[in-house]
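Sequence design from tokenized structure. All designs in this work follow the same two-part layout: the structure record, then the generated sequence. An example of the structure record is given first.
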């Protein structure tokens, strides 16, 4: 569909204004918010990743593409998250230390909020101690995001810190991000892994015994 392709291209070009304008146009024309997210925005970011890998794009291009995507997500947020649902449990989520990627985390937050979870957003570049504090503060799930192979190892650092501080048994640990796999989750002793924001909701429900 031409409009979806226009939105995708606007993200690749890093044109926030055009991205927002086209998303609004799409919604007005009756396009589904999920379709805009998956077929235009996420697909556009995947292409940006590919261009970066091939040396055609550099960090500044990635950054402006990320800004365009973030601007569009603000519009989609209320549409993707259903309102006023009951609290299913408290989840503290952050991107691990050394890692500044937050678009995937924002999407996971949106979906979890929409499903009725209370979210504590710890932000990006989060040191292990902050995850430990969140566990002490009553979060039932500690969720971590990592996009870099060099920072994903900090997920294990957090799990080790939770153990050292005697709070590992109080929480369930959920992890995700592009380089993460189920086998990595098993290897570091995380309780759950999900490959995307939609399945993050299902896994979070399962972890708290509220299977959906
Ligand atoms: C945008 C982007 C950036 C932006 C980030 C802006 C921002 N606000 O987030 C900027 C420009 C800052 C950036 C910087 C860098 N980046 Co970058 N970046 C990307 C890019 C293009 C897109 C990431 C993204 O937003 N994807 C879209 C979202 C929706 O997908 P997602 O993050 O995977 O999230 C989904 C799932 O993974 C999952 N998920 C995510 N988190 C969680 C958490 C939980 C609990 C669960 C259950 C699920 C879950 O659900 C999400 C939704 O479905 C990727 C390429 C790619 N294809 O991933 C490279 C990429 C991740 N970056 C890369 C690199 C190398 C870097 C830099 C080192 C570059 C440099 N030389 O400086 C720096 C590192 C900075 C740092 N310290 O973090 C590499 C990583 C390579 C590797 N294997 O380690 C990639 C893969 C590009 C590439 N192909 O080489 N980057």
């Amino acid at each position: 569909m031409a409009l979806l392709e226009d939105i995708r291209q606007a993200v690749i070009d890093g044109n926030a204004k055009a991205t927002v304008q086209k998303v609004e146009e799409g919604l007005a024309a009756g396009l589904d918010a999920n379709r805009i997210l998956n077929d235009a925005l996420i697909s556009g970011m995947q292409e940006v990743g590919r261009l970066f890998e091939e040396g055609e794009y550099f960090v500044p291009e990635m950054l402006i593409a990320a800004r365009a995507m973030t601007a569009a997500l603000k519009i989609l947020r209320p549409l993707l998250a259903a309102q006023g649902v009951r609290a299913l449990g408290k989840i503290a989520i952050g991107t691990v230390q050394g890692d500044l990627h937050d678009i995937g985390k924002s999407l996971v937050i949106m979906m979890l909020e929409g499903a009725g979870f209370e979210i504590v957003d710890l932000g990006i570049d989060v040191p292990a101690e902050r995850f430990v504090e969140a566990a002490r503060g009553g979060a039932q799930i500690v969720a971590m995001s990592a996009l870099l192979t060099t920072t994903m190892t900090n997920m294990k650092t957090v799990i080790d810190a939770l153990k050292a501080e005697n709070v590992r048994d109080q929480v369930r640990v959920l992890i995700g991000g592009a380089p993460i796999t189920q086998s990595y989750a098993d290897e570091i002793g995380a309780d759950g892994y999900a490959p995307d924001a939609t399945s993050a909701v299902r896994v979070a429900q399962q972890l708290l015994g509220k299977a959906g």
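Strands lie at 90-96, 118-126, 141-145, 172-176, 192-193. We note this feature because it recurs in several other targets discussed in the main text.
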